[in-house]
Write a structure and sequence with these properties.
Blueprint lengths: L10 H11 L4 H8 L3 H15 L6 H16 L1
């Protein structure tokens, strides 16, 4: 299980994560945040590294961990 509280997340990373949790694609995230899809990929790549996610379904693992953190706060 990933502990998102231990992952350094910038405000922009958080915006990307929030949209990822909502099920948005990289292209949709880019459109909503007025950044390029390539920039979205870079944010996700950085988050994967910080979270120690190196294999498997990276987007799913990151989104699940972020969602669980969000639910724990509710």
């Amino acid at each position: 299980m990933l502990d998102m509280d231990k992952v350094k997340i910038t405000p922009r990373d958080q915006q990307v994560l929030d949209l990822l949790v909502q099920g948005c694609s990289n292209k949709e995230i880019a459109g909503q945040l007025s950044i390029s899809p390539r920039t979205v990929k870079q944010h996700l790549r950085t988050l994967f590294l910080r979270a120690g996610i190196r294999e498997g379904r990276k987007r799913v693992r990151l989104a699940t961990a972020a969602f669980e953190k969000l639910e724990a706060k509710s």
